[in-house]
Design goal:
The protein is an alpha/beta fold. The protein contains 15 helices and 17 strands. It has a seven-stranded mixed sheet with strand order 9-10-8-11-12-13-14. Strands 2-1-3-4 form a four-stranded parallel sheet, sandwiched between helices. The chain has a three-stranded parallel sheet with strand order 5-6-7. It is elongated and about 90 Å long. This is Transcriptional regulator. It comes from Paenibacillus vulneris. InterPro entries: WH-like_DNA-bd_sf, WH_DNA-bd_sf.
Amino acid sequence: MIRLAVIIAHQFLPRMQAVQQSLQERCELTILTYSQLSDTCEHYNRHYAHVDGIIITELGYLYLEERFQGSFAVPTYIYRISEEDFYKCLFQLSVERKDIDFSRVCIDFIMSHNDYMGLKPILDPDHFPQTFPYTVITDQIYQELSDYHIGLWKDNKIDFSITRVGNIVPKLEQHGVPHIYLVPSHKSIVQQFEHIITEIEMIKLADNQIAIGCLSIHKLNELPSATNDLELKTMLLHKSLLEFTMVEKIPLIIQKTNVSFEMISSAKDLKVITDSYTRCKLTAFLSQHVPFEVNLGWGTGDTMYKARMNAQLANQQSASSPVRGTFVIQMNGQVIGPLGEETNLTYLNEVSPQIQRLSEMLDISTLQIQKIMGVITKTESNELTSEEIAYHLGITIRSANRILNQLEEKGIAHIAYKKQEKLRGRPKKIYKISFPAG
C-alpha cells in the first residue's frame, strides 16, 4: 500500500482526519500538524525516508522549496484550493454582500505562482482584489500576513478578507476583521490525493521510466465557444481513448485536466503506441473515431514532473506544427516528430551555444536550424532542394527558398548543381548545406 504523509496547519486537522478515513483502502496516510512554518522542515526531514510521497499546503511547499533549493528527497505535492471551491466562495460572497467591491477584498493566496486562480482575465485592474506581495517565504510569514490584513482593515482599504492560512485566523478574529477561512472541500481533497496516489503507483510500477501523453483539441480557442459542443467533444474523446486501450490492450491511466487529457503510461508501452517512435497508433485511431483534429504530445522522464513537462512541450509542438502529427520529447531532450514514416524528424529540444550563435548569425530560428540538421541526418545527405526543406519543415516553398538564400548569403549553403526533371520548366536547384562543426 502507498504510504503518504500530509503536513497541515493544526486548524485543518478534523477535516484531514475525514479524508484519512475516505482513503484508508488506498493509502496509509500519516497526518502531521504545524503551528509555525519551521515545523514543516522538521516534519519533512523526520518522515521522508518512511513514506512514498509527502503532501503539503502551497505556502508550506514554497517555504520548503527555498530551503531545499528545489530538490525534494521524495515526490512532494501541493494540495490546493480548486477553482471550483474558490469560485463557489466568491459566488456565495456576492450573494450575501450584493454591493461587494472586490477591489476592497483581500485574498492572500492568489499569486503568479497559481496564475491568480484565473481571476486576471475576469476582473480589470480597478476591481482586482488586494493581494499579498509574496517574495521570500520566511518564518515570519504568519506575522506578515496577519499584519497585512489587519493594516488594510484599519486603514479602511478593505471590507473583507479571504485567507487560506488557518494560523492567522485567531488574530483576524481578535481585531474584528470580517473574513472567510477558505479550505478545500472534502471532495476536492480526496480527488487530489487519489490523483497523487495514482502517480506514485505508476512511478513504482514503471520503475521511474515514465511516459505521459498530453492530448487536446486542435485550435480550441478558435472554435465557437459553445459549452455543450465542447462537453460533447471531450466526452467523445474520452470514450475513444478508453476504446483505444481496449482494442490495443495497452494500459493507460486517463485523467481529464480542464479541456485536455493526460495519459500516464510507461516508456515501454509508449514504444508500442508509437511503433518505436515512427508512427502513432493513437493518432491514427482517433482520426477514425472523432470528427475533429487533435494535438498529441508524449513526454518521457525519470520523474513524473519531467515527463509531464516534456509532454506539455510536445503537445505545444503538435499544436503549432504545420504538418499534423504527434510529437515525442524524450528524457534527454530529444524531440521526435511529427511521427510519420516520411515527415518524422529527430532533434534536441535544448539549444546548444553553437545553434544559438548560428541562429543569431543567420537570423533563422533555432528550431528551424535544428530541423534542417534533422533532415540532413534523416536523409543522410546535405544536398537538399527547397521542396525537400519545405516538406520536412512543414513550410511553404517560398519560405524554404528564403531560408536557403539566407544560408547561401552567409556561406553556409551553395548551389551544388541544377537538376532538370522535366522537359519544360526551370531546373531544380540542389543546395549543399555545410553547417560549421562545433
